[in-house]
Design a protein that fits this description.
This protein has eight helices and three strands. By secondary structure, it is mainly α. The protein has a three-stranded antiparallel β-sheet. A hairpin with a 5-residue loop joins strand 2 and strand 3. It is elongated.
Length: about 170
């Protein structure tokens, strides 16, 4: 029986030049440990995505925005795109700051909000979570929705209050 995961493992084994019959018990244990780590990371990613929305790869952001690599790098530096950094050094990009258009664009006002969060959150995860969590001060809306509704000033003020509490 073939499954997508078995097909991936078989393809990767073949591409590596290793024959499955060449693997000894130590090799199998090493691979098993690696797979456990990958699956643990996948579970964490799914949990985060259930809360903050999709986490895009570099390539996916280029596809949905139509930008060049240089344009994406500049957008991150300008705080127009929220880059998420994982413990292992890998990066992803939160959809929280993009509108729903095609091609996707940063939401008007997100730059001001992300600039407030920049010093308080070096990895981006707190900002992404905050952007997608309903806030009573915004009438129960998420900061993302409030930005889409044109309430940028209120969101920036609330971001300052939130990051101020973190610094205290």
């Amino acid at each position: 029986m073939s499954t997508p995961l078995r097909d991936i493992v078989a393809a990767e084994l073949a591409a590596s030049g290793l024959d499955q019959t060449e693997l000894n018990p130590g090799d199998a244990a090493y691979v098993e440990n690696g797979i456990r780590g990958v699956l643990s990371g996948l579970k964490a990613r799914r949990a985060w995505e259930n809360h903050i929305g999709a986490i895009l790869t570099h390539k996916q952001v280029l596809e949905v925005t139509g930008w060049t690599k240089q344009a994406l790098s500049q957008a991150v530096r300008d705080h127009r795109v929220l880059r998420l950094e994982a413990e292992d050094g890998s990066v992803g990009y939160s959809v929280a700051g993009f509108d729903g258009a095609a091609p996707a664009r940063p939401i008007l006002g997100v730059k001001d909000v992300l600039r407030v969060w920049a010093d308080a959150d070096g990895t981006g995860w707190m900002a992404a979570s905050w952007m997608m969590t309903e806030q009573p001060e915004l009438g129960g809306r998420t900061p993302r929705q409030a930005l889409l509704d044109g309430d940028g000033r209120s969101v920036v003020d609330l971001a300052r209050a939130a990051t101020g509490r973190l610094a205290a």
